[in-house]
Design brief:
Blueprint: E1 3-9, H1 21-24, H2 29-39, E2 45-51, H3 55-65, E3 71-75, H4 84-93, E4 97-101, E5 123-126, H5 131-147
Parallel strand pairs: 1-2, 1-3, 3-4, 4-5
Helix pairs in contact: 2-5, 3-4
The protein binds ligand CA2.
């Protein structure tokens, strides 16, 4: 059975690899996505990627994902810490979403310690750099497998 996953990235993540490599690593967003695609090669997994700097476009991407995706690997960027609109979109769609961060947000400024999204997500992965996305995807796929009705 094909598993369809949206890899959704929020504000400023299009700048990955251009600045702050000590915090976010040297990979560009395209590198991160290529890594993910390599990681699932040979498995029946379809990945679609969306990045936006605009909160409403991220809400729209979640609404649209409801029509085709089994789950979402989502790095909401700074919206993590204050977007009630994204929280409502996640809970409203009922999608299995893994909140994903490159950096360990809990080891950084206090305002990054709080997520308004985590409580409505399936899980949270943070602090493994680009590998956070691989861990998040594996966790999501394992969860989806366990949901599959026994044949
Ligand atoms: O650690 C993460 O993945 C974050 O979601 C990244 C967000 C930050 O606001 C969150 O607290 C944690 C920031 C993404 C900005 O990415 C940049 C990358 C390169 C240069 C400038 C910004």
């Amino acid at each position: 059975m094909t598993r369809r996953v949206l890899v959704l990235n929020g504000p400023n993540l299009n700048l990955l690899g251009t600045r702050e490599p000590e915090v976010y690593g040297a990979d560009t967003l395209d590198d991160v996505l290529a890594n993910l695609r390599r990681h699932v090669e040979g498995r029946d997994v379809e990945l679609r990627a969306v990045q936006s700097n605009i909160e409403g476009e991220l809400v729209d991407a979640l609404h649209e994902a409801r029509t085709w995706a089994d789950g979402v690997v989502f790095n909401p960027g700074a919206f993590t810490h204050y977007s009630i609109a994204l929280r409502d979109a996640i809970s409203g769609t009922g999608l299995a979403v893994v909140e994903t961060h490159l950096s360990n947000v809990h080891a950084r400024e206090e305002f990054r310690h709080r997520s308004v999204l985590a409580a409505v997500c399936l899980g949270v992965v943070a602090g493994f750099g680009a590998d956070s996305y691989l861990v998040a995807l594996d966790g999501l796929l394992r969860h989806l497998e366990q949901q599959e009705p026994a044949s």
